[in-house]
Write a structure and sequence with these properties.
44% helix, 349 residues, alpha/beta, six-stranded mixed β-sheet
Length: 349
């Protein structure tokens, strides 16, 4: 989130956020993708006296996430890092954003070159004009609420049938046909190595690190299975557990555990009531982000106790087996959605 009164570049989030991290007064940071950028509120009461900043980046990969972390370590003395992980961050095929080269996150930029690129480059001028255009329409430079049809332009109200269309669009364009994020090549061992480095740095600097696996709707997990990446996704979780378990003992919470929360009813074309927790299958609302914060930062909270599971080396095999069973049950209970997913995949297979 931008400091009060500032304007983020439309499509230039990395340049703006790098400046905010370097110049801002923060001691807690949220790292992740667009899911945590949209869903996790840095001003929630559970942060207490900590001054939190949401440094998550939309459309990112873990190389970028790690460089954001390095920027934080270089310029700040963080007390807490909340790291929200997505499978897509570790995709072998997911590239680094062009916007990244404009920012101070890029190691090749010194203070002077960063300032020039942030303010006078062709890219930054284009972003400034976009900002003016959106401001003239009475819209924020970069909408915060979510991702609709490929752009961060969610509104608080969703018309009858609109969310159903949005869900199918997300599955088709952002999941099934997104070979960069959900590559058949699987996840990158090099990017897992960067996670290992991040964990070690936090331990060496005595930084409180909390890791969460960001929630997606069960319908998207069912789509993973039909795409042939579900087993890779489960193995990736096991790899994360191996990095966070003893002797590191980093708290790891999995919010893709097929709880009733992430399996909420998917609206039909005729449904006027939108989902409570999700914008579509990939991005969750701030209401769910509040549940995540409660689960992680106030574990004894009675709010939605079935939401999220703390993964350890002792329970990971049991949890993986349970998640396989739950997904099979979901497929059986939602045969119409199952058929819809197959119809979306077949034309592209």
């Amino acid at each position: 989130m931008s400091p009060k009164g500032s304007i983020s570049y439309f499509g230039g989030t990395r340049t703006a956020k790098a400046v905010h991290i370097v110049k801002g007064d923060y001691d807690a940071f949220i790292l992740g993708s667009s899911r945590s950028e949209i869903g996790i509120n840095p001003r929630h009461r559970l942060w207490g006296s900590l001054k939190a900043y949401n440094a998550s980046l939309a459309g990112s990969n873990f190389i970028e996430t790690h460089k954001v972390f390095q920027t934080i370590i270089k310029h700040k003395q963080p007390k807490l890092i909340m790291l929200a992980l997505d499978y897509g961050l570790f995709s072998e095929a997911r590239s680094t954003s062009a916007d990244f080269t404009l920012s101070r996150f890029d190691d090749s930029n010194n203070a002077f070159s960063s300032f020039f690129k942030e303010h006078f480059s062709k890219e930054s001028i284009e972003k400034s004009f976009r900002t003016l255009k959106y401001t003239a329409k009475g819209l924020p430079a970069k909408h915060k609420q979510g991702q609709k049809l490929g752009e961060l332009t969610f509104s608080d109200t969703i018309d009858n049938g609109e969310q159903h269309e949005l869900i199918l669009n997300t599955l088709e364009k952002k999941v099934i046909n997104n070979n960069e994020t959900y590559s058949s090549k699987g996840y990158s061992s090099d990017r897992l190595r960067l996670l290992k480095e991040l964990i070690k740095t936090c331990l060496d600097h005595e930084i409180n690190l909390m890791i969460v696996i960001s929630p997606v709707h069960t319908l998207q997990l069912m789509t993973f299975k039909q795409m042939g990446i579900w087993e890779n996704f489960l193995t990736w979780k096991q790899e994360i557990v191996s990095l966070t378990s003893a002797p590191n003992n980093i708290p790891l919470y999995d919010f893709t555990d097929l709880s009733t929360v992430i399996s909420e009813t998917v609206p039909t074309e005729k449904t006027s009531t939108p989902m409570k927790w999700f914008w579509e299958t990939s991005h969750y609302k701030e209401s769910m982000g509040d549940l995540i914060l409660s689960r992680v930062m106030a574990p004894s909270s009675p709010i939605e106790p079935s939401f999220g599971v703390k993964l350890t080396s002792e329970n990971i095999d049991f949890e993986i087996a349970k998640q396989r069973i739950k997904l099979e049950e979901y497929e059986q209970k939602n045969s119409e959605l199952y058929s819809t997913v197959l119809s979306l995949i077949k034309p592209n297979s």
